[in-house]
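Side project, low priority. Logging it here so it doesn't get lost.
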Amino acid sequence: MNRSAKKSILKRLSLASLVTIISGQYAVAADNAVLPIKKISASQAQELMVEFASNSFPTAPQVLDLPGPNHRVVIDFADASLDKGSVAGAEELSKQISKLIPYVKAVRYQELENAPKPTARVVVELPEDLKVKPRVLKLEEGRVLISFSDQPISFTQASPAAQEAAAPAESSPAVDTANQLRPSIPETDGATADSGKTELAPSTADASDDKQPVPAGKIKLEDGTVVNVKLESVRRYNSAVQLHLSGKLSDAIAAYKEALEVNASLAEAHSNLGLIYNQQHNYAQALAEFRKALAINPKDAITYNGIGAALRAEHDLQGAIKNWQTAVSLDQKLATAHYNLGTAYEIEKDYEKALSSYRLAVKNDYRLGEAYYRMGLILERKHKAEEAAEQFKEALKVSSDSEYSEDARQRLVFLQGKKGKTQ
């Protein structure tokens, strides 16, 4: 082979290598991009298929089975969005999938607004008594397959009562609601006799400001000012609360930590951090923050409520119940704790206790529409049609467009029609 031919081959090899390198870099870049979900469907093997509008490999989703009276499998796809122009509507999608997977009651989806990164959630609603073991079966370019069981599932495995009941709306314990968040603290609580910010005393010719002692209960900021520790921590905490309420969770986390850097004994900051970590499904970190809060203030009902939510998410139902019971014993007006107890008792099929807890929840906060809805489901199960209808009416008064609303509306129409036939 002559020298000219060798040069030509080497040139082609170099070009091919360059194309390979560029392609590899593109694939890596694509991995970090937000991938839109274009289709959700089912296979003949009863697997859920989620397809993306890209051939890049998606991030492996988090799959969580939440059994109980509102049994559902929650699948969170990080770095993903929903192409709602391509994905079938929830009603049509549910019909399509239930034809191939008969035990699926409904499928719905949403984009999580407050997640730390773009996240698309798919929720599959199942019969109460159906046992599944959901997992990611296959992760391919542009597609994810979710299996519900290693063995074929027969639709008859679900109890008649579970098959009859429409899928309840999602009722996992609320972990970041306005009435659960520790509120802002009046700044005067930190230092009633202190203006909060005091300039350093004038320095002498031979001494610098850095050498001057900082009085007890004060802290020097980067700009050289001395402030009251408690007041400064309260100011930072209140700023974090505003970020928290506006849904800027990453900024809120940083702000709460800044408050704790000034005053590590600020229990409210630890408790609210726990609420954020609960919302982000980081339950180990949430429990760590809640326990720090209790070490400072062992009688804080909101913190016990948050611990219960974290334990429930980790399938420790008995641990969750104990903490929610402690929460309501410390604050009988904490509506979310009563509601959470109701969901736990309902899972245990202790319907009388569940009804009692739901009633206490709405007594203390009439805005908890889903508590009315859950009471309606229980009373309907007990064949108390008129009482059930009243609860569905109350649920719809609170909200006509919540996740539970359509089911409540349909059940109300059915119960009223049934009543008309008997008159």
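Brief comment: Confidence is low (pLDDT under 50) at residues 9-31, 155-179, 189-209.
Revisit when time allows.
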